[in-house]
Amino acid sequence: MGLGDDIKNKAQEAAGKIKESVGDATDNQKLQAEGNADQAKSKLKQAGEQAKDAVKDAGDDIKG
């Protein structure tokens, strides 16, 4: 995974946590949901990048 992608994904996850926390504090269910959605998107992107890296590493191992 590229460092830039990793930083963007972590930033999106952190922003989601902040949105969720603010939503909790203000009893704003829409903001809570947006925060949860942002976190889920970030985690999905991170998992996809990790899978892509694993496939690339396996290919590199096969090539020798």
What's the SSE blueprint?
Blueprint: H1 3-26, H2 29-63
Explain this structure to me?
It is a single chain. By secondary structure, the protein is mostly helical. It is 92% helix and 0% strand. The protein is built from two helices and no strands. It has helices at 3-26, 29-63. The longest helix is centred in the last third of the chain and has 35 residues, at 29-63. The model has no long low-confidence stretch (mean pLDDT 92).
Concise structural overview:
92% of the residues lie in helices and 0% in strands.
- Helix-strand pattern: HH
Q: How many distinct helices?
A: 2
Q: What global shape is seen?
A: rod-shaped
In terms of DSSP E residues, the strand content is under 5%
The low-confidence parts are: none
Structural class of the helix and strand makeup? mainly alpha
Distance between the termini: 21 Å
The percent range for helix content is: over 70%
- Oligomer designation: single chain
Number of strands: 0
Q: If you compute it from the alpha carbons, what radius of gyration comes out, rounded to the nearest whole angstrom?
A: 16 Å
Largest sheet: none
Mean pLDDT: 92
